[in-house]
Amino acid sequence: MGDDLLLNAQYGKNQIIGVVDSGVWPESASFSDVGMDPVPKTWKGICQEGVAFNKSHCNRKIIGARYYVKGFYNVFGAVNPSEDYLSPRDADGHGTHTASTATGRQVPNAAALGGIAIGIASGGAPMARLAIYKSCWAMPGKPKSDGNTCMDEDVLAAIDDAIGDGVDILSLSLGFNEHSPLDQDVIAIGSLHAATKNILTVCSAGNGGPSPASLANIAPWVITVAASGIDRQFSSPVLLGNGMKIQKGYSISPYAMSQMYPLVYARDVARLGVPQYLATQCQPDTLDSYKVNGKIVLCFIGQGRNVDKGIEVSKAGGVGLILANNQDNGNTIFYDSHFISATGVGYDGAVTILQYIYSTAYPTARILPVQSVSYTPAPFMAGYSSRGPNHVDAHILKPDITAPGLQILAAWSEASSPTKLPYDRRSTKFNLYSGTSMSCPHVSGVAALLRAVHPNW
Prior knowledge:
The chain is α/β, with parallel strands linked by helices. It contains 10 helices and 23 strands. The protein folds into 2 domains: 2-231 and 377-453, Rossmann fold; 233-374, Glucose Oxidase, domain 1 (3-Layer(bba) Sandwich). The protein has helices spanning 2-8, 70-76, 94-103, 152-165, 186-196, 276-280, 289-292, 306-315, 347-357, 436-453, and strands at 16-21, 62-67, 107-110, 119-121, 129-134, 136-138, 148-150, 169-172, 200-204, 223-228, 232-235, 238-240, 245-246, 249-250, 261-265, 296-300, 320-324, 341-345, 364-367, 371-374, 401-404, 408-411, 430-433. β3 and β4 (119-121) form a beta hairpin. α3 packs parallel to α10 and α4 runs parallel beside α5. It is elongated.
C-alpha cells in the first residue's frame, strides 16, 4: 500500500511543506532539484538572503526560505555569529534533519558517521517542495546539544508568512512545555489560522515521557505525533574471553576493535580517594590511567552525558567502553556516537559481564563491529515519547498517531557535529537522531502524499 500511495501521489509532486525549525543546509543532496518542474506559479514566498545564504541556495526543491529573529533579539540581543547564522542556514542540524525526513530526495549510499546505516535515504514525500521558516536559534553561551530556543513571536510570524506564501502542510518539530490554554498557545493559535486556509499542521508530541500529561501541541485541529521504534537496530555485541557473547549490545560508534583487550570494571580502576559511585559512572577525572591504559572499561550510566564517559575512558588510556544500564533502566538501550570503540548493554548483560570479570584473573573482551540488524516486535513506543492525558481537555485524546522516531537517518548540517557537543570536531552529511521531532516529519510527508491524491479532503 505504501508504494501505491507514493506512485499515485507522484511522490508528493508540487505539494509544498513548510518546515518551522532551525533552518536548512541547502547543499545537502537531499535538497537537489534535479528533474523537478519549475516552481508552481501559485507560490508567493521569497528566498531571504543573509549570512552564508543567498538566492542561489533556493531552487526548485527549496522554493522559499525565511528567518525570524525579532523575538530572539528582544530577549537575548544580537545573534552571535560564532553560534548561528543570521540567515535561513542551519548551524544546528535539527532543521535539516526534519526537513529532509519530510521531503528529502532519494539519496543512495547515505550513511551516518563511519558508514553506519548505509542505504537509500528518502523523505516521506521526496518530490514535494520545501519552504524553510527558521525560527529557532542557538541558545547564547550554551552547547548545541542543549537544544535551540524558539521564541513565541518568531514562531507565530513564521506560521503567518507560511500561510500567506501558500504552503499545503506545516511541519513543526517543536513545542512549548507550558500547559497554556489554547487561546494562549502560540502554535494552537497559528495552526488554527492555517486550518481556516485548508493547511494541515503536524506537530511533535514532545519528549517528556513516560510521565503522564507531558504532552505538547494538544489542539484538536493539529496532528500530534508520538515516537516509536523501527524494525532496525545497530548491533555491536561484546565477545568475552570465555567465549560467551553478549548479543544485546548496541552502538552507533564507528570505531572498530580487531582484537581482544583486558577488561576492567570502572569501580576497580578508580583514582585514589574517588568515591566508588562516581567511578562506577566514569565521571570526569575518576579513572586511574595506570590501571586503565590499554583496557576496555565497563561503566554504568548515571549523571552526565554518556559521551563524556567514553571521553573519560579515552583520557585515561582506555581503548573501549561498555556502557551499562542500571537496574532502574533495565534493558533499554541508549545510542551514542562515542569517540572510541563503544557499545551499550542492558542491565542483564552488565550483570553477566561483571560475573565474568570476577570469575577469572585475566578477563578480556572485544567489542564487535556495528551491524544493522532486524528487530522485532516493531513498532514499539519510545520511552521518551510524551504521554496523555490531554492537560487542557481530557476528552480530546492525544497524541493522535505515532511514527518512527528512534535512530532516524536523515540529512545534517555540516556546521554541526554528530553529538552537537562543542568539543566534537567531526562532521557528517547524514546523522542518526531520535525524538518526536523525527517522527513528526514522517507524518508531514505522508500527509503531503495523501493531499496529492485527495486534494479536496
